[in-house]
Design brief:
Strand content: 5-15%
Structural class: alpha/beta
CATH class of the largest domain: Alpha Beta
CATH topology of the largest domain: Rossmann fold
Distance between the termini: 10 Å
Number of domains: 2
Largest sheet: 7 strands, parallel
CATH architecture of the largest domain: 3-Layer(aba) Sandwich
Helix content: 40-55%
Shape: globular
Order of helices and strands: EHEEHEEHHEHEHEHEHEHEHEHEHHH
Strand order of the largest sheet: 3-2-1-4-5-6-7
């Protein structure tokens, strides 16, 4: 059969969450499936060619302009012209007019939830607000139209089912994400030194993947870190990726600690293959999000030997199991207390690291790709 996969962003240099999931799905399908033919539709305005064509995998650089136009018009037309018998859209949305059997990966419906929209009001970038509006309009139609809806955790499956009144609809299925094989402890001292110098890493630091999306709880995390320093007198630093300094200064003003900027290292964008060395050298990985559909970074950190603090909300307890310190993300004082507890108790820290290796090993991209392939096969039988 001929399977089309929407992967419009995987060739861009700065890849994030959904891009990496789509990339790992394609890489592993390319390894395990030599029978079916795949056509990957990407946008032509990016060129980090992470997927090479093979005998049964073809890359189509599809023009079509602004993303909504590309997805709603150019993509279904190109998939039909290519003879696709199934189209898998990987990033929460899909064309509503296509007649080709449709599989959609609906990572989450956070943008549909009133509680999240209250948090978002007045914050988040213009790009994020537009994306949420686009999804809020199209996703209800896509849910009705899709032949199969893949989501990434049992929490999110239940949430989607409840929100759209789907009950036990067999079209909806949970398929766990995985952890890439390069996420493991880095032991080469030259590699550790290279990464430390490249990103100006301090001797000791907490690591936080915050961004401007309100669900990441950047404000609460910074408040917790500020309180940690005040309570302990520590010289600990906080390493953050790819965050705008002006936005950071606004948050620090809000929490009443503008001097905290001197304790924060902003690395800029980090190449994915450099992340293991950053995870592995941190004292604690902080992941106290308000809402997540899965939480891949938790597992990456665990696989690299970092103790993890995460939240008691949404999917995070499901994914973390007993391998993380669980806190209420709406209470910065709980995050602070967890920081202090882990660094004061070597036995607890060692236990979290040990359990983390075991937990991360339960999730693989190969298993995810095998599950998705079975969905393709069942749908086209």
């Amino acid at each position: 059969m001929i399977i089309g996969i929407e992967a419009q962003r995987i060739f861009r240099k700065k890849k994030h969450g959904m891009d990496m999931v789509a990339l790992e799905l394609i890489r592993n399908l390319q390894t395990i499936d030599q029978e079916n033919e795949y056509i990957l539709f990407i946008k032509p305005d990016v060129d980090d060619a992470v997927i090479q064509e093979s005998s049964n995998f073809k890359v189509v650089r599809l023009k079509g302009g602004f993303y909504p136009l590309w997805e709603q018009f150019a993509l279904p037309r190109a998939a039909r012209k290519a003879g696709c018998q199934l189209l898998h859209c990987t990033s929460n949305t899909a064309p509503v007019l296509t007649r080709i059997p449709l599989v959609v990966t609906l990572h989450d419906i956070i943008y549909m939830e009133s509680s999240y929209l209250k948090i978002l009001r007045g914050s988040g970038s213009l790009y994020q607000k537009f994306g949420n509006l686009y999804r809020k309009f199209f996703v209800p139609w896509i849910v009705k139209k899709s032949d199969k809806i893949i989501t990434v955790s049992h929490f999110e499956k239940k949430r989607i089912g409840q929100f759209f009144g789907m009950g036990n609809d067999p079209r909806l299925e949970a398929v766990y994400n995985g952890v890439s094989e390069h996420f493991k402890p880095v032991t080469d001292p030259l590699e550790l030194k290279r990464v430390r110098e490249k990103y100006r890493l301090p001797d000791r630091y907490f690591f936080f993947l915050g961004n401007t999306d309100p669900k990441k709880n950047t404000k609460g995390t910074l408040k917790a870190f500020s309180d940690y320093l005040k309570q302990t007198g520590s010289d600990m630093k906080l390493v953050m990726l790819d965050y705008d300094r002006v936005e950071l200064e606004k948050i620090l003003t809000d929490i009443g600690d503008t001097e905290l900027i001197n304790k924060i290292i902003l690395t800029g964008y980090v190449v994915n293959t450099d992340l293991p060395a950053i995870y592995g050298q941190c004292d604690i990985f902080l992941y106290p999000s308000l809402r997540e559909s899965f939480g891949i970074p938790m597992l990456e950190a665990m696989a690299c030997g970092a103790p993890v603090i995460t939240s008691n909300t949404s999917s995070m307890p499901e994914v973390a199991g007993e391998a993380a310190c669980i806190v209420n993300p709406y209470k910065p004082e709980e995050i602070t207390a967890a920081m202090i507890q882990i660094l004061a108790d070597e036995e607890l820290k060692a236990s979290l690291i040990s359990k983390g290796f075991v937990q991360a090993a339960k999730f693989s991209w190969k298993a995810m790709a095998e599950h998705v392939l079975r969905i393709y096969q069942d749908l086209l039988k």
